[in-house]
Each structure stands twice: as C-alpha cells, then as structure tokens.
Amino acid sequence: MARHVNRLSPFNITALALGVAFLYLPIVILVIYSFNASRLVTVWGGWSLRWYQEFFNDRAMLDAAWMSLRVGAVSATIATLLGTLAAVGLVRGERFRGRTLFSGMLYAPLVMPEVITGLSLLLLFVALNAERGFWTVTIAHTTLTMCFVTVVVQSRLASLDRSLEEAAMDLGCDPVQAFVRVTLPLILPAIAAGWMLAFTLSLDDVVIASFTTGPGSATLPIRIYSEVRLGVKPEINAICTIVIALIAVLIVIASLASKLSSARGESAAPL
Predict the structure, then answer these.
(1) pTM higher than 0.70 for the full model?
(2) Distance in angstroms (rounded) separating the CA atoms of residues 196 and 172
(3) Alpha carbon distance 177, 251 (integer Å)
(4) What is residue 73's predicted lDDT score, i.e. its pLDDT?
C-alpha cells in the first residue's frame, strides 16, 4: 500500500515536468544562447565563447558588476547585523513598550512597494544634501533587506530552547557570554541564510537602486536594463549566465553547510 501511494502516476509526472519546464526552460535557453557565435540573439550561429570575451573586455559592465558585488556584500553584512539584533530584541524582549510599533515599522518594507521605498529614500537623501553614489545605494539596500534577515533569524530564535542559555548562566556565564557561546552558534545557520538572502536581493534590485544611484555608481542590473532598452545583445546572455552560475554555487555551498550542521545535531535554518 505504501509503495502504491508513493508511486508517481502519469498525471503527477506530467505536472512535475510542466512545472520544471515552466521554471527552468527560459533559463536553459538563455544559457545555451550565451554560447551563440551569431550577433543576432535569435539566430543560432554555432558554439562560441565570443560574448564572454566581450563581457570581460567591457570596462563599463565590469565596473557595474564590481559595484553590485560591493554594494551587495556591504549591505548584506550591515543588514544581517542589524536584523539579528532586531530579531533578538523582538524575541527576547516580548514586553518592552513600543514593541508593536517597532515590529510594524521593521516589517513595513516587506509589503511596501519598492517604488514608494525608493522615492522616500531619494527625498531623504536630497533633504540631507547627500551625494548619491555607493553609500546611498548601500543604505537603501540595507533598508530593504534588513526585514528579511529579521524574519529568518527570528523564526530560529523563537524555536530555540532558552533553558540552554539559563544553564550557561547557572554555570557562571553572564548574559552576553551565554548568548555568544551558546545561542549564537545555534542561530549561525539562520544568520548565514539571512546574509545570502540579503545579498541576493541586493544583486537583483533595480527599482530602489535607480532612485538612489548617481553618476558612476550604476549597479549591474541597472546597466543591463539600460542596455536591453536599446536591444538585447548576446553579451547580456553571457552576463546573466555568469550570475546564474555564481548563485548556483552559493546555493550548493549553503545546502552543504546546512546538511553539515544538521549532521552535527544542529537545527539549521531552511534556505
């Protein structure tokens, strides 16, 4: 009976195949056409690495890619730090005054349209007479991604047994030492997952970055968007393939780290 229930029916196989094709067939086509030797995107001209060479010789694209990596790394690190502290405050400070208002303001970027967030940040930077560039984009991305980190870390902290910290304090640790030596290693997989999520969201953002960027600080998505408006070039396919490969490597590393943590008896956060 169990084998009969777990057996895939033709309908299930068809539905699974259609779902996978819907999700990944466009990506597969993009990767294949990134090796197209023809200058025309829709005309196959044989296999070639020509457009990868064009990308690595395109100084403007390389600068935009480097800018995206820098913004993503810095904003994800700051968002992870602030989001972790906010999660600790929400979970461990259940009764502090203003908790409802604080949590509502913290989670607002989750549901607020990015156009409104980007416009409000632009008005803030204009009011402060701040020169738009690397740091304005970084601050904007930190504002966007901090709430996602908070959600991930908060879910892990909420399921953590607090008696472990209490036992550490009974053995002589103060609250800070108990958190650093006991709680922090247990929530480290969730923190890593939050950092990766924040980094990915930063790399993907176009709307908020378009409001807060300035001359000479365009990120890779903005650069790609400006190029696509003039027509899709095969070089764009090569750039997107490289980004897909990097994200795939990060996902594999995160999955292996999560499985390793689970094998050691830790409850890793789901990615």
Answers:
(1) yes
(2) 35
(3) 32
(4) 92
